[in-house]
């Protein structure tokens, strides 16, 4: 039976009617805004937009908006998620490595670190920060292009001996487009020809006014080499996180984003997932883009097996039936049947998109898999 009009479905998902019509068209359903559609079709559309649907009765459906079901009192503070960006050779990798070694928990555990695409640092103060360990603009823009907003704060690395360079400007544009606050790490301050004042001046030309000049952009002088200023940059990130009031409900089915995924010999398809809300558990059935699986094991950034992963935690997930793509949405679902239904629909849509776009689509897919 037809249960809902296109308009009503769009309203319940808080999406534009035109986008819902387009989604229907891609499924081969021609419908106008006032037409009614059946529950099966509605459910596929809802899944397509990344929301959830429940059949309340024969004649009505309830749409659970992604993240919107959480009521205020269920939300608790979560760690900020940070991406490091900047010009080549300005010290992104060095800074990420240096920050990583400030983690007190892994020092206690013996310090074997795994590179899984993201890591979380526990500070002596008790605060936590999650860093996306794949620096660079490609990761950031690709995720954004795929609709994934993983980053709360961008740390912009600028070498004090080199100043603002083309990729610095590019990074500023990306962060601004994503409306993500920027903290500037003026790096390599140990060098004799370091000139942090010049960096602050140059930032002005890109509408980043640092605090010292009466603006609201935090800029910290650091050295990834001597480790000068690492605590200050962490403080600045936590301060920014407080301003952003980052919170999530840990007591619900997990949702998040795939940070990276690959097929590994002996382990099968492995995805690093950033949990954004809820708690992921061993045994959970989940959908990741056009793939699904049942969590066989969870491995954290210290290489340790764990039973659960909560909000803002990066975690390696084993048990996938295929390899998803970076930026794919991740969500725990109730049943295997549901997981199959969603992924079969997405697989079909993917094949259609590739066929429609011809070689261009295939190329794009190749690129996003690299
Ligand atoms: P990326 O391309 O931005 O990831 O930069 P890297 O982290 O690979 O660093 C580029 C070069 O700068 C390497 O040779 C690093 O050893 C060096 N470097 C990075 N940070 C510092 C620093 O704080 N001081 C000094 N003197 N050299 C640094
Ligand atoms: Mg690098």
From TrEMBL:
GO terms for cellular component: cytosol. This is Translation initiation factor IF-2. Belongs to the TRAFAC class translation factor GTPase superfamily. Classic translation factor GTPase family. IF-2 subfamily. One of the essential components for the initiation of protein synthesis. Protects formylmethionyl-tRNA from spontaneous hydrolysis and promotes its binding to the 30S ribosomal subunits. Also involved in the hydrolysis of GTP during the formation of the 70S ribosomal complex. The gene is infB. GTP binds at residues 86-93, 133-137, 187-190. Keywords: Cytoplasm, GTP-binding, Initiation factor, Nucleotide-binding, Protein biosynthesis. The chain holds residues 334 to 703 of 913 of the full protein. It comes from Skermanella stibiiresistens SB22. Residues 77-245 form the Tr-type G domain. It comes from the Bacteria. It is found in: Cytoplasm. GO terms for molecular function: GTP binding; GTPase activity; translation initiation factor activity.
